[in-house]
Amino acid sequence: MATKPAPKKKQERSSRDDWLRAALELLGEEGIARITIDALCKKLRLTKGSFYWHFSGRQELLEGMADRYANAHHREIRERIDSSDLDDWERIKLVAKDAFDNYARIDHAMRIWAEECEFTAEAIKLSDARTLRFTEEKLVNLGVPQDRATLIARLMLCTGLGFSFAQPSLGGKKEYEELEPLIESLIDIERAKKR
């Protein structure tokens, strides 16, 4: 007696953002060359029809990834932080932690991709500018003069990027977090100079 094939699982509906999130995750895991429609369909366990419901093709997906990187993840982080009752220094540390824990691989892959892609390079500029503005604003709120806040914000961004690119030779999260007291001391020095 022949057995009936198992019924197909009903596919869940996907959103454009589901595809973009999965594509950015895949980018962080495997690089830009592995961002294919087939690979994303496999990752999400969805059909090409679902993909083409949201995108006209791979190019629109790539542009959407760059846009999401530059805009949506900053908004998501900010929403989490703004709903907290943390002081400004704790907010800066939380953003740095979130970036290191959740975006380092994606950020690294985006920067490699940007070497060959103008719209990705523009997305990175926008993302970095937002990160710097956020950090500067919080540092100024802590009493650091604006010109010094700009320099410290750049130092912090470059430090995070350095650890992202140089893992494991510089160490990992623990070594990155060991820099917090040094940066906090620098902030205290700049605040004291202002008084």
From TrEMBL:
Name the record gives this protein: Putative HTH-type transcriptional regulator TtgW
Gene3D superfamilies hit by this protein: Tetracycline Repressor, domain 2 (1.10.357.10)
Alphabetic keyword roster: DNA-binding, Transcription, Transcription regulation
DNA-binding region: 36-55
InterPro entries: Homeodomain-like_sf (IPR009057), HTH_TetR (IPR001647)
Claim: Acetylation is one of the keywords in the record: no
SUPFAM superfamilies the record matches: Homeodomain-like (SSF46689)
UniProt-listed Pfam families: TetR_N
Annotated HTH tetR-type domain residues: 13-73
Name of encoding gene: ttgW
GO molecular function annotations of the record: DNA binding
